[in-house]
Amino acid sequence: MDWDQFDLNPKVIAALKKADIKSIKEILNLSGADLQRLTKLSSADIQCLLKTVSHTLRRNSMVTGAVYICTEDVFPSKRLQQLTDQQHKLRADVPAEIIQRIKFGNSIFVEHAADLDTFHNCITKRISLLLTRGMVRLVVIDSIAALFRCEFGVSDSVTKARYLQTFGAQLHSLSTRFRTPIICINQVTDAVSESEAAQCSCSIVGNRVSPALGITWANQLLMRLMVSRITQPEQSSGVTSHHTGSMRTLRVVFAPHLPPSSCYYTVKLEGVKGIK
After folding, report:
1. Could you read off the pLDDT of 127-142 as tens digits, one per residue?
2. Which of 59, 137, 226, 266 falls 20 to 30 Å from 241 in CA-CA distance?
3. 3-state SS class at 223
4. The pTM is what?
């Protein structure tokens, strides 16, 4: 790579060449301390270098990745490979040679956080580093509820609420600072009492449900979307359905910029497809 094309101090360019660093990928794979050790540059020069590389990536769209944080199950790598292999079917309108050139799975960063301390370290340090370097533009957390299911008892509601508020504030800060969407997957529970039913505004085929982490976590979110599977009546013999796979619905429960609305979709071998 021709480092002279970058808006960098000549001293920094000379140091990169002397250290035999030949690509942006090499820079992104090294920590700040390692870069400083290899290039013999000051901490300020390293920060300037990383910002320049980050801005270049964002401007040229060279890297647009995602972070997927698993808190419960193992990451479904087989399904990811299946989706990658079927992209030519999902994106039939895109020329095949373009699909073949794109390495869809190369920019997905997977992290497993099975406890609160690991999760806190992940969102405050690891994700922040990736966002700072411009390597990701989407964060998915699957799921928030799993972290709190076994950590707290009924008598720990105050401590649990504080953790939820802390995590919510940290995620808000990351999203605002880097203008990056953060998707937090959560489960729902049946709303048994009248107070629970009054707090929630969700329903699944007539059943009232509420977010698994209660109103404390629901209030941390900028917008709330709800997905559910629709039970379809059995088809009579000889009748073929137009949509293979289970039909699902995506509903806007709350959003400051969207009215309450919904749409239908299905999950197939090649991925998610909308239904008109």
Report:
1. 988 888 778 889 999 9
2. 226
3. coil
4. 0.70
